[in-house]
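FIELD: query
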Amino acid sequence: MKRVGWLLLLLLAACKADDEYSEWPCRFSYDNSLHLDATLASAMDVNSPGVFCTITEHNGSGGKYLMFSSNHRMQTTQPETEEEKRAEYVLGLNNGIIIGFQNAVFDDFYRSIFVAYDVQCPNCVRTSGNAVTPNFRITAGDNGIATCSKCQRRYDLNNGGLIINGQEGDTSLEKYAASTTGPHGHVGVFRHR
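FIELD: result
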């Protein structure tokens, strides 16, 4: 009976961990050793917690471009390689993700964890009933607080995207599974399931 109890406990814990990540679409894999983009690198550096980079994709003259904007007022644009164009990135619910190392204390210990969030305010998406073409963008501030352009709700990027000034029933930011090998290495952001 003890084994069944432990198995159930492990299954429940695994389900809870899956609930941490969004079901919204996301697929982004980028090798910064090819581009050496300084804005993106600043958010991929474990020694720079609290620096967050918003990533969006744009079509322009001559092809597709990735735009990187940090919460420390850096902004760069990189043309996509042919291979990157074929990858067909899915940057969240409406062309935007935020990545970086959160600057937080857990259980009295400082831990820097690489995170990724969707740029859409989940509470505006939910209340509008529009998950197809939402435009409720959050903007990351230099203090690690992101603010929704529509409802003015604020979210703490350094603390799992938790809502700071919401109402009862409001949720935190949508999170994606994310990894990095360092500033001039690889970054990957994916829907967990």
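FIELD: remark
The helical segments are 2-19, 32-35, 38-43, 82-87, 122-128.
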